Amino acid sequence: MIGCLAFVAAAALAAPPLEWRAGSAETPAPGALVLITSVSVDEAGAAWIERHRDLGLWTRADDQGRYALPISGTAARVWVATFHPRAGTSVTAFRGLAPDPVFADQPDDGAVVGRVRVRVRDAGGRPVEGALILPTRLRFEGRSSGWGPPLARSAAWTEADGGAQLDIIGIAGIRGVPSAVDLRVFADGFAPSSAVRAGLDGAEVEVRVAAGSRVVGRLVGPEGPMEGAWFDLAPPDSLGSDFPLRRRARTGSDGAFVFEHVPAESDWWLSAPAWGNDLALCAPAMALKTPADDQVLNAGDLKADAGRMVAGRLLGPDGEPLRKEAWVSFSHEQAWLGWGAWAGPEGEFRFDGVPNGGPYRLSVSTQGLLVSEENAAATRVSSNALRGMISRDHADLRVLLVEQADRMNSSQPRHKPMRGVEGAAQ
């Protein structure tokens, strides 16, 4: 069968958590907010979602300034920013589980491009002291920059009146004059705020924060509750525009997990990936709508199993096995799930441990070729991807590729429905 509906990718098993201390012996940083700001991997062709599987994860240090960030195992280098009102802000790169002295705490590489005044209040209008104002994205006319360590160094903390002033540091090498900046507020005992856009002229903006809701549940495997498994909670956003709201929680001895202070009345995806536990089991990704502030959403018992297996082969335009370098990647369209691997010498690929559900996309990157529209799950959303749901194992898929010019010059009418994606959102 050519281009069947379901595609998965091999899951890397969980790596040990990245454990370190915020601040220093002279200036400890208890309760510091700790955030992964950038990630690199060794595979140059890795899918975007695999390169950034850990991007935007955040946690808080304990009363000794210690923290543990669960890294998925795909990252070659991780940049971690820590924010504390006394210890200040620092950005450190880690290779493996140790700081990388070559990249640690790089100096600012941009100039101050503007100033922002922010005032933070709670739902009752009272000022919030000690809230972190975090710039996440510079805005230019018609485009935005990425998040990076220079913006981390622009962060500030509110004073007793709930006010803070930020000098926004630009990013060297990005052309153009920024016109605005996106901000988020993190305050102890409150959910992260919605993104707020502020001009760079020093005018004051007000941000309201609320307690948020609580998300709880359990992970249950074939032998009973699963202890020590990691859960991801993320907005329905595979491109990262809601960065940095992603969080990770670990199950206790009864298999239970809890996420505190989740933004209320908003959409989320909950997932238990196979790389997040020693048994390599996974549960289907679950779409959630959080309740009002101070309310609890119980996701119930999520059933974990080995997931699905998909094996197959890439075929060249002549219908023969593809014998050239090709990167195959797979991602859920909304939940933060994604993997990738190089195809074998005969175009073969095999992926294990992916949950039922979707829609998923299988993308193929290889020079001069695109995914043929003759594949049953070809999609006009992307000329190098197939799209569909997964509900069973597949052992012998065939994915046909064609010359780039042939796919781009296709005369297939634009109104023709996409084929082979039964059950997927159109």
Task: Using brief descriptors, characterize the structure shown.
single chain, 426 residues, mainly beta, Immunoglobulin-like, five-stranded antiparallel beta sheet, 31 strands, globular, disordered N terminus, disordered C terminus
Could you walk me through the main structural features you see in this protein, from its secondary elements to its overall organization?
3% of the residues lie in helices and 45% in strands. The protein has three helices and 31 strands. It has helices at 48-51, 149-152, 404-408, and strands at residues 18-21, 33-40, 58-60, 66-69, 77-84, 88-95, 98-99, 112-122, 132-140, 143-144, 156-157, 163-169, 180-186, 196-199, 201-209, 213-221, 224-225, 230-234, 247-250, 256-262, 267-272, 283-289, 296-303, 308-315, 327-332, 338-342, 348-354, 357-365, 369-371, 385-390, 394-403. The strands form eight sheets. Strands 3-2-5-6-7 form a five-stranded antiparallel beta sheet, with no helix packed on it. Strand 5 and strand 6 form a beta hairpin.
Query: What is the CATH C level class of the domain at 308-408, in words?
Result: Mainly Beta
Radius of gyration from the CA trace? 23 Å
> Strand portion, in percent?
35-45%
Low-pLDDT residue spans: 1-14, 411-426
Shape: globular
Structural class: mainly beta
| CATH architecture designation of the domain at 308-408 | Sandwich
Largest sheet: 5 strands, antiparallel
- Average pLDDT, rounded to a whole number, is 82
CATH evolutionary superfamily of the domain at 308-408:
Immunoglobulins
Strand order of the largest sheet: 3-2-5-6-7
CATH fold assignment of the domain at 308-408:
Immunoglobulin-like
Strands, count: 31
The separation of the N and C termini measures 22 Å
Helix content: under 10%
